[in-house]
Amino acid sequence: MNKKVTEFLWWIVFMFFLLLSAVVEAKETFYRHDVHWLAMNIYHEARNEPTTGQLAVAHVTINRVESSHYPNSIEKVVKQQRRGICQFSWFCDGKSDVPKNKKVFDEIYKLAESILLRYNRNDIYDITEGATHYHAVYVSPRWSRADEMTRIARIGLHIFYRYEKVVW
User: Fold this and answer.
1) Separation in Å, CA 152 to CA 6, 60, 113, 128, 156
2) Per-residue pLDDT tens digits for 23-46
3) Residue 19, pLDDT score
4) Separation of alpha carbons 155 and 137, rounded Å
5) Helix (H/G/I), strand (E/B), else coil: 126
6) Model confidence over 114-163: pLDDT tens digits?
7) What is the Cα–Cα distance from 74 to 66, expressed in whole angstroms?
8) How far apart are CA 147 and CA 155, in angstroms?
9) Cα–Cα distance measured from residue 4 to residue 20, given in angstroms and rounded to the nearest whole number
10) 81, β-bridge pairs
11) What DSSP assignment string belongs to 84-113?
């Protein structure tokens, strides 16, 4: 092979790997971004719950991402507001969102990472059976009594519901 062809081929190979590394890096950043927002939601909504309660909150968040009724990213689901009301109260309560207990947050971050890794491999069982809503046991929101809501379970201090699409 002549020298120019060899140099051109090496240039093509180099560009291919450069492009591939950029895609992998972008995917990793996107993944870390998802883990961060999932961990923040679990921390603020269920840090004092047993692992099953934390897992259930994670599933509700992911189930909303998967539903056509909600935004298509974990961050957007967590930040979503309807009629000026946050879907997850911690995000709009006016308090600092910086986790105060770093040790607990680090544990929850690892849990969120594990959940998303298993979710991406389709290797996770949804203990909420598709729940998209929950509330603390000490409140009774109006939406929980709607015909479209099916109560799934009480896990820790939360009651979980699945939104059932009504077909007319």
Assistant:
1) 64, 12, 25, 7, 13
2) 455 555 558 899 999 999 999 999
3) 55
4) 10
5) coil
6) 999 888 778 888 999 999 999 999 999 999 999 999 999 999 999 999 98
7) 10
8) 22
9) 24
10) 86
11) TEESSGGGGSSS--S-S-HHHHHHHHHHHH
Bridge partners for 159 per DSSP: 135, 154
User: Strand 149-155 to strand 158-163: parallel, antiparallel, or no bridges (unpaired)?
Assistant: antiparallel
Residue pair 157/86 in contact (Cβ under 8 Å)? The answer is: no
d(CA 147, CA 102): 41
Q: Are 158 and 50 in contact (CB under 8 A)?
A: no
**What are 103's two structure tokens?**
């040790």
Token pair in block for residue 155: 């896990």
Amino acid at 77: V
Predicted model pTM: 0.80
